[in-house]
Amino acid sequence: MPEDEIVDRPSHPGAGAIAAGEFAALMQGFGAFPCDEPRFPLGVAVSGGADSLCLAWLLRRWRRSLRAFVVDHGLREGSAAEAALTASRLEALDIPVSVLCIQALDGTRRLQETARAARYQILAEACAAHGILDLALGHHAGDQAETFLMRKARGSTPYGLASMALSRETPHLRYLRPLLSIAPERLRATLQAQDIEWVEDPSNQKRCFERVRIRQYMNAATRCETLVEAGIYGALRNRRSEAAARWLASIRLDPAGYAVMAALPDDPALLGQLWQMISGATYPPSPSDLAGLIASPRAMTHSGGILFKAGRYGEGWILAREAAAIRAQSALYQGLWWDRRFKVRGAPMQPGLSVGALGPESRRYRHHPLPSRVLAAVPALWRGGSVVGVPTLGEGISRDWPGFEVAFEPAVSLSDRSRWPDYRETVKT
């Protein structure tokens, strides 16, 4: 049989093996991928169970440049042997594989959550080492339904009830779940059609785990109903994420440490993250305070930030650091992180220099086209009680200080959002 063909022998609708064309259509939803060559591999996490092993099989027939990662948590006797067995099965399918070992998890509290966090961390590190930007995960329709019911039982927010997204991006890696619309029975049927064996994890039968109890309770009809409900919340989350993406694209962040917005966002959490970023605060303002501000926009000072009308600087609003809330000056040194907003690099070996807010001295720099309230909060170089330079404005910087800069690098970045625009949720089973 040609290696790019997958047998499709459905025993009944919805339970047959997955055809090559069907899987290719699922992958099209994630957009274009780099060239299919060894320099641009796609990653896949494989536990050895039917779900992830089937995903690896499908990906290998869809794309040659692939690398699998098998994680050995070391939580039970024989896990190393299972990992080695899974690696050998992947190699037999002509899939390069790396076995990743996690140490010292046994005996920890909240074991499943701890193991999950450790697994994602070691997978992200391995992907970075191999130049992988996309990692595929084997979550399927059954997992999605279980996740929804678990979150619903805990009183999750509508955002949480949307459950898993088809795609989730982080600053360094994109996680893909192409099988979220596929019933687990079809994944097993696909492997059986190819005479591929898999590992059954005994923990999948332990009723001490909430997910196992839900899985044993749920039948095909319950799963379908649950996925429809999750899909409704998923569509709502996508609309909110798309609105957030449009707003993020519309704002302007200035290296002087302020933001210009044509309008406030609808999401208090999003405004709170921007507020925390600009103010350098450890925590954002309360969501209730920001919700009131969004409902009735007005100039205000709150949590180290100041919001005011842009006026002659354009339509909308400016969010800046409140100069009066900035602490005293700090001695200048290489690596100084001033006000949780600006990083010092290439600090000159000059005794007696410190960094502090420009403050009232900003009146000397009104020739710069910045709002006065922004000028007062920019970092300045002080010697004693006198300002000797303002790096952000390019003022007073000696040519004898090559590489010196005070750059805007706040503690919180809008690129660190845990919620990214997701691909359209699916309710198909």
Automatic annotation (TrEMBL):
Entry's Gene Ontology cellular component terms: cytoplasm
Cited InterPro entries: Rossmann-like_a/b/a_fold, TilS/TtcA_N, tRNA_Ile_lys_synt, tRNA_Ile_lys_synt_N
Subcellular location: Cytoplasm
CDD domains given in the database record: TilS_N
Keyword Secreted: no
Chain ranges of the tRNA(Ile)-lysidine/2-thiocytidine synthase N-terminal domain: 43-216
Domain notes: The N-terminal region contains the highly conserved SGGXDS motif, predicted to be a P-loop motif involved in ATP binding.
Protein name as it appears in the record: tRNA(Ile)-lysidine synthase
Highest classification ranks of the organism: Bacteria, Pseudomonadati, Pseudomonadota, Alphaproteobacteria, Acetobacterales
